[in-house]
Design a protein that fits this description.
The protein is an all-alpha fold and 204 residues long. Helices cover 73% and strands 0% of the residues. The relative contact order is 0.05.
């Protein structure tokens, strides 16, 4: 019985020693972190300088590095003009709820508006405080034969004593031409402009 216990204890000790030996030492972890940090910086510089093959080679080695999403964000942001929307959607899904994902979605929507890709803009839009982007959304809705929703958005933006960005010119003109921009709304905007001491806007 005693021999069996000693045998079991020896095996347990051996198993513990193997497990401990498999754990990287603090020094090894520090070296790996330093190496990854250096590769991350090199990858950033390669991307900025347009050395894409070097960038991709380094990026492949950094997928488990905590700052890897920032690297991918910069890469995708630089290539938004190429319509590589599969990468955008994958990034948004993998990083859902993070500031990086929200920032990339915002930049993507602005890019879609500049390229007049209205259907894609509508399908991926999220409500934001950016008035110019909301007007782009209203523009997209008008282009996709959804005027009532566009005018509802514009009505909320209209009630201000401040000038609207140029992106609002087209949808507001359409709103006015359709007869849905009522005199009551016009006078309300004038009152708000006067209250904000913007008499030129009120006269306009």
């Amino acid at each position: 019985m005693q021999a069996a216990i000693i045998y079991t204890v020896k095996h347990l000790l051996f198993a513990i020693m193997v497990a401990v030996a498999a754990i990287p030492t603090a020094s090894a972890l520090d070296q790996r972190t330093t190496s990854q940090r250096r590769m991350f910086t090199d990858a950033e510089h390669a991307l900025q300088q347009g050395r894409f093959s070097t960038y991709q080679r380094l990026a492949r080695k950094l997928k488990d590095y905590p700052l890897y999403p920032y690297l991918r964000f910069e890469e995708i942001k630089r290539n938004l003009h190429r319509n590589n929307y599969k990468d955008v959607r994958r990034f948004l899904q993998d990083n859902q709820g993070t500031p990086l994902a929200r920032r990339l979605q915002y930049l993507w929507l602005k890019s879609l508006a500049r390229k007049h890709q209205w259907r894609m803009l509508i399908d991926n839009f999220y409500y934001t405080n950016d008035v110019a982007l909301q007007c782009d959304f209203a523009h997209a809705l008008l282009q996709q034969n959804q005027p009532q929703l566009a005018y509802k958005i514009l009505e909320g933006l209209w009630k201000t004593g401040h000038s609207l960005p140029k992106q609002c010119d087209y949808p507001v003109d359409k709103w006015f031409s359709a007869g849905d921009l009522t005199q009551d709304l016009v006078w309300e905007r004038i009152r708000l402009a006067v209250r904000s001491h913007r008499t030129r806007l009120a006269l306009y």
